[in-house]
């Protein structure tokens, strides 16, 4: 697909932490191409750079060298403000520990990203109701996080991530805090978002069951991807 540039394109990315002699290199020339509509699981030992990669893809951190381009936007040349605006338009993030605001109901948590959009209250409510329905959470709309199970809270987290209809979902250990059944429900939802709605998904995970749901598994080890790529079903 030479005339169809990758949706996610990393070339020669360098990233380190610390300064001078204390400098800890994480990536030194990392490259990666992910087409639109892919569902990629990133696995690897602790400290291999998975979270660092997600932070670069989210535009939350910047590379010292190389190019990070997503959906045609070159994050490496954007300032912080531009990256913030890009993030609200392009990205949904699903966190391991859900990151819901405890004083807001499920519906209010899901509505949050929409407050940055020029939408009427009615339009916001309709969108929230649609995604809560998609996630099977209609009955939970007025419940607070403390009144929900971990699995339900994670589904609220997924609803919040997709309510703005982003092209890209980044998931950081989305099943890491869930029992098997809730984990499988969350994975089924991610699978549906990828296969039915065409969302591109990059998911960092230690969970082999999560990796099986993805279309591809990338193994990160000491800051580089292992050459072999296991193809999913
Ligand atoms: N802000 C930081 N300052 C200094 N060192 C950092 C920082 N963030 C991460 N590191 C170091 O960079 C390396 C890669 O960290 P990273 O969090 O990307 O790994 P990971 O693969 O996500 O690990 P885990 O599976 O444990 O979450 C680790 O050695 C970590 O200690």
From TrEMBL:
Family annotation (SMART domains): AAA (SM00382)
One Gene Ontology MF term: ATP binding
Protein keywords: ATP-binding, Nucleotide-binding, Transport
InterPro entries: AAA+_ATPase (IPR003593), ABC_transporter-like_ATP-bd (IPR003439), ABC_transporter-like_CS (IPR017871), ABC_transpr_LolD-like (IPR015854), MacB-like_ATP-bd (IPR017911), P-loop_NTPase (IPR027417)
Domain ABC transporter span(s) in chain numbering: 8-232
Family recorded in the similarity comment: Belongs to the ABC transporter superfamily.
Annotated protein name in UniProt: ABC transporter ATP-binding protein
Organism: Jiella pelagia
Lineage: Bacteria, Pseudomonadati, Pseudomonadota, Alphaproteobacteria, Hyphomicrobiales
């Amino acid at each position: 697909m030479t005339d169809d540039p990758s949706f996610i394109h990393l070339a020669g990315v360098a990233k380190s932490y610390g300064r001078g002699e204390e400098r800890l290199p994480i990536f030194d020339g990392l490259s990666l191409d992910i087409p639109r509509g892919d569902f990629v699981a990133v696995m690897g030992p602790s400290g291999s750079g998975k979270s660092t990669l997600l932070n670069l893809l989210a535009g939350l951190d910047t590379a010292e060298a190389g190019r990070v381009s997503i959906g045609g936007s070159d994050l490496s040349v954007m300032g912080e403000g531009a990256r913030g605006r890009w993030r609200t338009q392009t990205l949904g993030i699903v966190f391991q520990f859900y990151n819901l605001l405890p004083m807001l109901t499920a519906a209010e948590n899901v509505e949050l990203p929409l407050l940055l959009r020029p939408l009427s209250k009615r339009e916001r409510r309709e969108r929230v109701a649609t995604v809560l329905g998609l996630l099977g959470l209609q009955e939970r709309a007025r419940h607070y996080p403390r009144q929900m199970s971990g699995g339900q809270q994670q589904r609220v987290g997924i609803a919040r991530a997709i309510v703005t209809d982003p092209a890209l979902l980044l998931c950081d250990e989305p099943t890491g805090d869930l029992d098997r059944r809730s984990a499988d429900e969350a994975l089924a939802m991610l699978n549906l978002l990828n296969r039915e709605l065409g969302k591109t998904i990059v998911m960092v995970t230690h969970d082999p069951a999560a990796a099986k749901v993805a279309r591809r598994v990338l193994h990160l080890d000491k800051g580089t991807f292992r050459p072999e790529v296991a193809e999913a079903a």
